[in-house]
Amino acid sequence: MNIDIxxxxxxxxxxxxxxxxKAIKALFMIEVEKRQDWEVGIKTVCKSNFVMTxxxxxxxxxxxxxxxxxxxxxxxxxxxxxxxxQYALDVLGELGNTYCGMLxxxxxxxxxxxILKQSIPTVYVxxxxxxxxxxxxxxxxxxxxNFITIRYAIQKK
Amino acid sequence: xxxxxxxxxxxxxxxxQLKKFFINELKLNVVATGKDGNEAIALYRQFHxxxxxxxxxxxNKTGEDAVKEIIAEFPDAKILIISAVRGxxxxxxxxxxxxxxxxxxxxxxxxxxxxxxxxxxEEIWEN
Lengths: 157, 127
Prior knowledge:
The complex is a heterodimer. Chain A is an alpha+beta fold. Chain A is built from five helices and six strands; from the N terminus they run ααβββαααβββ. Chain A has a single domain, classed as 3-Layer(aba) Sandwich (Chemotaxis protein chec). Chain A is globular and about 45 Å long. The two termini of chain A are about 15 Å apart. The mean pLDDT of chain A is about 90. By secondary structure, chain B is α/β, with parallel strands linked by helices. Chain B has a five-stranded parallel beta sheet, sandwiched between helices. In chain B, β1 (about 5-10), α1 (about 10-25) and β2 (about 30-35) form a beta-alpha-beta unit. In chain B, α2 (about 35-45) packs parallel to α3 and α3 (about 65-75) packs parallel to α4. The mean pLDDT of chain B is about 95. The chains are: A alpha+beta, B alpha/beta.
């Protein structure tokens, strides 16, 4: 386990959380809140109705942003009865762009990892997604009775 | 009569957000929307809007290329770039003739952002 990255992610927990709150408010105009602390660790499987992944990298690091949402949560977020996989890709992809963009506005993040350029998003629907075995910080942001899980995993190249 | 706008973005979600903003906040008439640079050019020819907004990163034809082609055909076109892209591409778009730039994400819940957005559009039309 890479202790350096583990400690850095833990020390940046507030940045990852605040970025999530700000990104969701910017896109959906709703307030979300953290109800439990976010944790640093390795997670290799993610099971949810909608899972969005977006890679990013620079010369030294490669990272993976993951959003996971249940069907009911994404419907409530968008105020719709049904959300197609294509629309979920559109919405969660924009949220991924926004989240990564805002993270790059954080001096603390950049001092630790530098500026990472994000790639294009991918959405997995109704399945089990297998993630790379790398350290990440993960937690939930709640709105009403629903939540979105956010994970930011990063490793040295 | 309210001014006309065309919105071009490859995200349907963002198109809908912008459309709501233009109609409800700015009382503009959104005459068409499109998802890439090719549609931008075709829709501009068809509607000759008072304003066209362009994302930069789009499939088939980028916003940057669309700016070049629209300005070549309609030198007075009022083009507003709305994009998350930072750096040279923005400067290139402005050099090719775009009249303004709004950086994503779009903070429609923040008064300061909304005021800046309105001011940018007013300045485009004044100049």
